[in-house]
């Protein structure tokens, strides 16, 4: 079997034309099969599935001839010589359409192949050095040194800025994904968007969306806050742990309750109608097949949130009741004046001191914990919430839910 090998040095699809051209030439040259890959051949040990597949075919003895456009298409990291020697031991001919037979058995062939291998590697090093130097110079000059920016941003005359039209659209995409708990496949299907799931997940993780460029914060206007990013990563992590469970079965406590014995997530079991249960289905766990009602889990989690709301209200009250040294001084003077308020002119002085105290009354700064606690202070607020309304609250405020193994025992840890 004659096998052709085509390669471009980048994973970007912009080089598909080059790959298609190489395939066409190799097929015209009489190849029975063409292996193509997008991967750099410069870094030693880099993952190259097409290159490994070609090695496997050679090792299996199923190949009579390997055809490529040029020796540099095989590899630029030096292992092309090893491949040529392996082919020679198997009696396999290696041919380049640009230069004829490539062999290492003869003295001249070995020298020629070795020189070309070193030249290809040196050329890659030179190109890499020039690119890095160019990027460095552009950065020092204050320009954005890369041509790729995420959706919502643009580069104008080397300067990075938000795109006036795409930035609001990008924010809308983020809000829609957040409402879907970052189910990227569902969002793509709903909008029939020209995004791949991998591309959309990469966009979510791009640091530029948080205003980070080359490790510098606030280098560009952020699309999202760091808190929004953390929530997205938490949802993405949970979805990764789902291992293929469809979004239609994505329930309130899915991947949120773990077994204390094995550490695996408890699974919903609806065979216990009308009271579904959460059960450990890890076959090697001592708690396998055991669990507790979903209603029990919900009740205990809501109780933990309500208890925390009371602590937050008390903390807010303590903060609001603190007085500055000047306030304490005026209050002490008022106490002294109250003792002699029957004297002439003292009531007017008391009124003046009270006015000063009222003017010094501090306005609350920072997070208003009492406002957030109001949301959970009434147990009915959470008890009557739907699963769709409650789940984002759990992801935001609950750090972990551990089931020790009892029928009603649960360890809820809040953030």
Set down the secondary structure blueprint.
Elements: E1 2-8, H1 16-28, E2 33-38, H2 49-60, E3 65-68, H3 80-90, E4 93-96, E5 100-102, H4 107-140, E6 153-156, E7 159-162, H5 166-179, H6 184-191, H7 197-205, H8 226-242, E8 257-259, E9 267-269, E10 277-279, E11 291-293, H9 294-321, H10 325-338, H11 346-360, H12 369-377, H13 379-383, H14 387-397, E12 398-403, E13 411-414
Parallel strand pairs: 1-2, 1-3, 3-4, 8-12
Antiparallel strand pairs: 4-5, 6-7, 9-10, 10-11, 12-13
Helix pairs in contact: 9-12, 10-11
Could you describe the 3D structure shown?
The protein is of the alpha/beta class and 415 residues long. The chain has three domains: 124 residues, 3-Layer(aba) Sandwich (Rossmann fold), CATH 3.40.50.1390; 73 residues, no CATH class; 128 residues, no CATH class. It is 48% helix and 13% strand. It is built from 14 helices and 13 strands. It has a five-stranded mixed β-sheet with strand order 2-1-3-4-5, with helices on both faces. Strands 8-12-13 form a three-stranded mixed β-sheet. Strands 9-10-11 form a three-stranded antiparallel β-sheet. Helix 10 runs antiparallel to helix 11. The protein is elongated, with a radius of gyration of 34 Å. The protein starts with a strand and ends with a strand.
Quick gist of this model?
The protein has three domains: 124 residues, Resolvase, N-terminal catalytic domain (Rossmann fold, 3-Layer(aba) Sandwich); 73 residues, no CATH class; 128 residues, no CATH class.
